[in-house]
Amino acid sequence: MRKSGIIAGAAGAIVLGLCGAHFVRAANLANARSVPAHSLPPAGHGGVVVELCDGVTHTEVAGLKPGQPMSHTEALAVTSRLMAEWRRKHPASEWIMAQTEQKTATPVPADSGGNIAGPGAAAATTLKSQQGDTYASFHERDFKIWKAQTDAFVAYGNQVFHSAKLLGSTIGVSCDMCHPNAANTHPETYPKYQEQLQRVALLRDMIDWCIENPVKGKTIDPNDPKMRALEAYILAQRKGVPLDYGKH
Predict the structure, then answer these.
(1) Contact at 8 Å (CB) between 96 and 74?
(2) Predicted TM-score of the model (pTM)
(3) CA neighbor of 20 nearest in space, from 144, 149, 115, 184
(4) Is the dihedral of CA 35, 40, 42, 47 positive or negative?
(5) Quick check: is 32 in a domain?
(6) Residue pLDDT, tens place only, 180-218
(7) Which of 155, 153, 150, 145 is nearest to 14 (CA)?
(8) Coil, strand, or helix at residue 42?
(9) Separation CA 153–CA 82 (nearest Å)
(10) Inside any domain, residue 242
(11) DSSP state letters, 119-173
């Protein structure tokens, strides 16, 4: 049953990939309209059920009414209990943290005269580290399905990027005419200050500027499937490039 399940999943992933842009347009239109809610048990003691972003780990805060905010201390205590529960259930996993900088001491070499600054003299060296995977319980079938959906999403973005019609251009200009294969878009550098906009911009802000100006079309709603797919396509072209926000 396990092997047949994987084979069936792989077949499903192939079919999903063949569905391509049509599937992505329908799925992301639905996503743009609403965000699915996690299925949690109702409050049983007149309180509010609070959950982690895994959609599973939860607790009820007794006495808390819907719409009633907790104090910072109270909220921190609740989320700390939830995180402790998550770690207890996932002892082999790490919670992904933002990239951090760690300073370590490195001995300072002697100068040309053999002198050093003093005993134990050291220079601060900055090392960057990032924790690993958070969830390790997914199966091969899951990754195949997710890859098929992601590839189809990027493929639709590719289609929009290369189509003056889909971009809504009034002069027949498409993004690829100035940026072949998303060249020189540098999505890894956003957010950053953009002179054209005279403000700090996200990638989608610059996409909208380009559509409205060089392309001579109308700006796209941030949740429009075309905007989401455009972002996905542009980001996909820079896979493996480190994030470097603010860089010009």
Answers:
(1) no
(2) 0.64
(3) 149
(4) negative
(5) no
(6) 999 999 999 999 999 999 999 999 999 999 999 999 999
(7) 145
(8) coil
(9) 34
(10) no
(11) TT-EEEEEEEE----S-----HHHHHHHHHHHHHHHHHHHHHHT-HHHHT-SSS-
List of the chain residues with pLDDT < 70? 1-38, 95-137
User: SS3 for 105?
Assistant: strand
CA distance 233 to 235: 5
- Number of separate domains in the chain: 3
The reply to whether 231 and 167 lie within a common domain is yes
Same structural domain, 133 and 182: no
DSSP per-residue string spanning 87-102: HHH-TT-------EEE
- What domain range is 174 assigned to? 140-236
Looking at the fold, whether 132 and 66 belong to one and the same domain comes out as no
| Single-letter code of the amino acid located at 68 | Q
The Cβ of residue 48 has, within 10 Å, a number of other Cβ atoms equal to: 17
Q: What letters, b where the CB count within 10 A reaches 16 and e where it falls short, cover 28-37?
A: beeebeeeee
